[in-house]
Amino acid sequence: MLNLFPELLNYSLLAPFILRVVLGLIFLDLGVLKFKSEKQRWMASFETLGLRPSTLFVPLYGLLQVIGGLMLLAGLWTQVAALFFVISTGIELYIEWKAREVLKRDMVFYLLVFVISISLLLTGAGAYAFDIPL
Fold first, then answer.
1. pTM, 2 dp
2. Most C-beta atoms within 10 A of its C-beta, which of 7, 20, 54, 126?
3. pLDDT digit string, tens, across residues 24-82
4. With 0-12 CB in 10 A as exposed, 13-18 as middle and 19+ as buried, what is 16?
5. Per-domain residue ranges for the chain?
6. Contact, 27 vs 72, CB < 8 A?
7. CA distance 27 to 68
């Protein structure tokens, strides 16, 4: 079947750019929340999952999310950051599926973030990035 709007295909590099910026802002916010209002809840979650000492792992996880979010915003090592987010969000998705009381967000949020991360892992950074395909 013919494409109804073939002219829009000229802007195909903007799609990964938009996904990259939105995902970067989401993870930047999630990382900052691990240092502020959600810190105690995440520490209890890590303790429940057997990740001790949670006073070390929660700030480390928050820092990795902030750094990964900044990397996505800048378009620097996008696929590395996306791979980290695929793994971490996949784990959070599994935890949400098995034990809904541990995490605060719902399954749809984790699934959406997981799919966007996979998309960026496969397509790359898109327009306006430091990453260039070889």
1. 0.89
2. 20
3. 999 999 999 999 998 988 888 888 888 889 899 999 999 999 999 999 999 999 999 99
4. buried
5. 13-123
6. yes
7. 7
